[in-house]
Amino acid sequence: MKKGKQLAAIILIGILMLSVVGCGNQAENTKNKVNSSMPPGDDAKVVENEKILMEQLQPLPQLKQGEKIGILVITLANPYWVSLKESYERAAKELGVTVEVMAAPTEGDTKSQLETLQAMVAKDYKGLIVSPIEPFNLVPGVIAANKKGIEIVNLGPGIDVGAVTEAGGKLDGRITVDFEEQGRKAAQYIVEKAGQAGGEVAIIQGIPGAGQSEGRTKGAREVFEKTPGIKLVSIQPANWDRNTAYNITTNLLQSNPDIKGIFCCNDVMALAATDALTAAGKRDGRIVFGVDFTNEAKEAIKAAKLDGSIAYSMDAYAKAGILLALKTIQGMDVPEQVNSPLAVVTKENIQEYENWH
Question: What is the largest CA-CA distance in the chain?
Fold first, then answer.
């Protein structure tokens, strides 16, 4: 009987030891996992968006190591980049890194943006995440970062890889969205709403040569030009500027009073187009679509002022950008390119995106 009790005690001790080891291994396996669970009330669509990005980034880097990362966006005069800055800062807090977000004063100030990047290279960042105004303006800054040994990730609009290579440099990582697909999805919605009757449509671009503007225009143009009954009557650049987009729309109504749909390459210009149509008393029966799903666009869609916008989660996008930068800093292999999934948000499904961020 005594031997039986001793045997039971030995078995119990063994089970407890295995349990402790198992818990230790589990802790080791989970310490670098990114928390993709959302607080109550957050949209499941955001969780899914983040999940797709995280899968592309496996295995994830070590977290909470205190790395300092410099981030260069286009301009904080645009609400999209303001929102992305806030997303970067939230992600940095979660991931345990320090970020500093800088920007050019305006959308088109390519010289100032390069000067800002060159000043950032002189600081003590482990890595940089940069979004250029146009494909070539930041190339010298990339080369300077390479020479100093600072890892550099290109997020969003593309830096011309050929120009970087020709200058003897390299990009260490790339994360973006499919700009052509954004244009295609927006144009497809306009075409569907126009119906069999078709009609005249127009595209209002951003800055000529900017990657996101060129890509979105190309995608939308392909859809419009191949659709029977749809006539593309105008493609004009508004340089991401609200007043310019307003004036273009006003003039467009004079030359094409029966215009059926307008695709704008961002929400700022799309909202200006709706304002111009409303001021002319011609908003009804016309379709206006934007890109970025900014907070103002969200409210405009809810109010049926704007027909829709192409969205991608900025919180997930910023988090993925920082994780990609951490992978390069820590010497890990990185995918050739990370792509963010897209969502088509319209006045018909806006209630599904109430908690999108």
Answer: 102
Looking at CATH, the fold of the domain delimited by 179-311 is given as Rossmann fold (3.40.50)
Preceding peptide of 59 cis, ω within 30°:
yes
d(CA 47, CA 52): 9
Do 44-177+313-341 and 179-311 show the same overall fold?
A: yes
pLDDT per residue over 109-166, tens digit each? 999 999 999 999 999 999 999 999 999 999 999 999 999 999 999 999 999 999 999 9
- Residue bearing tokens 């993925």: 320
Cα–Cα distance list, 351 to 11, 187, 201, 298 (Å): 57, 22, 27, 10
Give the helix ranges, DSSP H, for the chain.
2-30, 44-56, 79-95, 110-121, 139-148, 161-166, 179-194, 211-226, 242-255, 267-279, 295-302, 314-329
Give the span between the Cα atoms of 278 and 322, in whole angstroms. Answer: 41
Domain boundaries, the chain: 44-177+313-341, 179-311
Of the candidates 296, 231, 285, 242, the residue with the CA atom closest to the CA atom of residue 264: 242
The DSSP line for 79-114 is HHHHHHHHHHHHHHHHHT-EEEEEEESSTT-HHHHH
Whole-model pTM: value is 0.84
CATH for the stretch 44-177+313-341: 3.40.50.2300
CA-based R_g, the chain, Å? 25
Tell whether the torsion through CA atoms of 258, 343, 44 and 174 is positive or negative: negative
- Can you tell me the distance from the alpha carbon of 274 to that of 136, in angstroms, rounded to the nearest whole number? 33
pLDDT, one tens digit per residue, over 17-61 is: 333 333 333 333 334 555 544 443 346 778 888 999 999 999 999
Quickly count: other Cβ atoms within 10 Å of residue 3's Cβ.
7
Evaluate whether 138 touches 116 at the Cβ level (below 8 Å).
Answer: no
345 SS3 class: strand
Q: How far apart are CA 163 and CA 81, in angstroms?
A: 25
Q: DSSP characters for 306-326?
A: S-EEEE--HHHHHHHHHHHHH
